[in-house]
Amino acid sequence: MKTLVLLITLFTAPYLLAKTLTIGSAPLNPPFETLASQPNHFFGFDIDLMIEICKRINLQCDFIPMPFDNLFSSIQERKIDLAIAAITITPAREAEFLFSLPYLESNGHFLALRKSAINTPEEIAGKKSRRAQRNPLRRFGKAII
């Protein structure tokens, strides 16, 4: 127990002494995060959540827009203190990063235009698709396509 308290203290002390929490966020991820017309001004569910957390721990939130694929490397390079972007928790990510408790169940979907001939996952075979490079759902897309 003493070791746990020591570890928590060591990892949280720098943030408790800081006045600002630098948060990386993907600017095009509605309804979780969306970049407003003003520079570095976000809105969305994740943003509201972080603003409330910052209020409760008496810190200023400083949101930095970046592509989703850059969030993890930015944490490793200490360019940001944390990231929020509807991040899916995977075993590989848990081995490298600390996560909060999950607050949303994630269900991936494929989208196509209504006038598209695609009606089943099998009909996606041979078609082009787009997904974030580090998205854990990409393996399902590769399996189908």
UniProtKB/TrEMBL annotation:
Residues 21-117 form the Solute-binding protein family 3/N-terminal domain. InterPro entries: SBP_3_CS, Solute-binding_3/MltF_N. Coiled coil: none annotated. GO terms for cellular component: cell envelope. Keywords: Signal. Belongs to the bacterial solute-binding protein 3 family. It is found in: Cell envelope. This is Solute-binding protein family 3/N-terminal domain-containing protein. Pfam families: SBP_bac_3. Its main location: other. It comes from the Bacteria.
